[in-house]
Amino acid sequence: MTPKPRIKKTLSGNWFLKCLYRFQFAVSSKRDLHGFRVGIFAPSDSEVQNGIFATIESAMKLIADVSPVCYARIRREFRGFLVNGIKGARAYNACWNRTLETCELDIGYMCSEDATLADVATTIIHEATHAHLFHKGIDYNESRRARVERACFRAQIRFAKRLPDGKQIVDSVIGNMQREQSYWTNDALIQREADAFVKAGCSRRLVQVILAIGKWRAARRHDTKTGTS
Description:
There is one protein chain. The chain has 229 residues and is of the alpha/beta class. The protein has two domains: 15-182, no CATH class; 185-220. The protein contains nine helices and six strands, in the order αββααβββααααααβ. It has a six-stranded mixed sheet, sandwiched between helices. The two termini are 26 Å apart.
C-alpha cells in the first residue's frame, strides 16, 4: 500500500476529540475486512453488528467488481471504518474522520432498510473522495465547502451510472448537488446536527451544549471531521 503523504493538520488544542475518537475505535467491536480494520462503537446486539460487517464487506466487493480504480483509491485513502452514533441522532450518513483517517458511518444509516448495498457503496466513494482531496491539501473550510461536496457528488454519480440499479441514486445525488450555497455554511451544519439530537429525544440543555461546542470548533477550525454525505 502506498504510504500517505504527511499533511499538516490544524488540530492542536483539540486533544479531547482526538482522544475520544481513538478511544471509540480502541474499544469498538472489530473485524478485518478487505484489509481494513472495521469497528462498531454503538449500542447494538451481535446480530445487528454481524449485519453491518456483512454490508460493509459486500459494499467493498461491489466497488472492487464495478470499479477497480475506485477500490484502489479507497485502499490508499482509508485506514479503516468506524460505525458509531445513536440511531436518529445524526444529521448525516457518513463523514471522513481525518483524526483516525477512517470512513465514519452512522449506525442509524447502516441499520436503515432504505440503505441499499449500492447506497452504501456510493457513500463510501463519496467519503473516499473527501479523503483524497484532503490528502491533496484541499481543506473543507466554509468558503470552498460547496465545491468540495460537488466533486464528491460527481464521483458518486460516475460510480452509480455503472450500476444496473443506479438511476435512483444518480437522481438523488443530482438533487443534493442543487442545494443552495447556504446549506453548506458552518451555522447550517451545526444546526442540522442539533436538530437531529432533538429528534432523537436528547434534552434541550444537551443540544445547547452541542451547539456551543460546534460553533467553537467552527470558529477555531478545530473540526476533525471532513465532509458529510
